């Protein structure tokens, strides 16, 4: 597996070694020791989540704060998504900057999202199964989020706005200028 640090410090693209033959393929999607060595820190995942969504479903931008902040390792098991992260670490030189990457069943890439980042994705294929490992348990009172269409972020979600399917919860999230951190 290869790790490539993004323009946002601590956020890594992980590219597995995929072994293909006439039977199909095989790859190691996660190995705790190799993962920690690649990203240069110890992360212990305690919760796995999976979602199924249709084309245009936009989930995010979500994060948890305080003692319940979460780092995540995300990937598309089936289909294709545009995955987006926003650096919410006030002390970071890349605070409020975002990064996006296409994750798919074909490229098998994963994205490591450190604590202190908002995270979201939109489904680009007809359907997608999205998986994420978290290094901390979900805690509703610690959950926060940002509007996906915050003009100060100017995220290109790659689909026309009229195709977006967004939850009521995500439609009322604050913009970066109105969020309390």
Query: Overall mean pLDDT score?
Result: 96
In the predicted model, the low-confidence regions spanning at least 5 consecutive residues are: none
Global shape: globular
| Number of H/I helices | 2
CATH homologous superfamily label: Jelly Rolls
Order of helices and strands: EEEEHEEEEEEEEEEH
The total tally of domains equals: 1
The termini sit apart by 35 Å
- Largest sheet features: 6 strands, antiparallel
Spatial extent as radius of gyration: 16 Å
Determine the fraction of residues in helical runs and give it as a percent range: under 10%
- Classified by CATH, the class is Mainly Beta
Number of DSSP strand runs = 14
What class, by secondary structure content? mainly beta
**CATH T-level topology:** Jelly Rolls
Question: How much strand?
Answer: 35-45%
Tell me what you see in this structure.
With 181 residues, this protein is mostly beta strands. It has one domain (46-178): Jelly Rolls, CATH 2.60.120.10. It has 2 helices and 14 strands, in the order ββββαββββββββββα. It has helices spanning 32-39, 168-171, and strands spanning 2-5, 12-15, 19-21, 24-26, 47-54, 57-64, 72-78, 80-87, 98-104, 110-113, 117-123, 127-134, 143-145, 165-166. Strands 1-2-10-7-12-5 form a 6-stranded antiparallel sheet, with no helix packed on it. The longest helix is centred in the N-terminal third of the chain and has 8 residues, at 32-39. The radius of gyration is 16 Å and the shape is globular. The protein starts with a strand and ends in a 10-residue tail after the last helix.
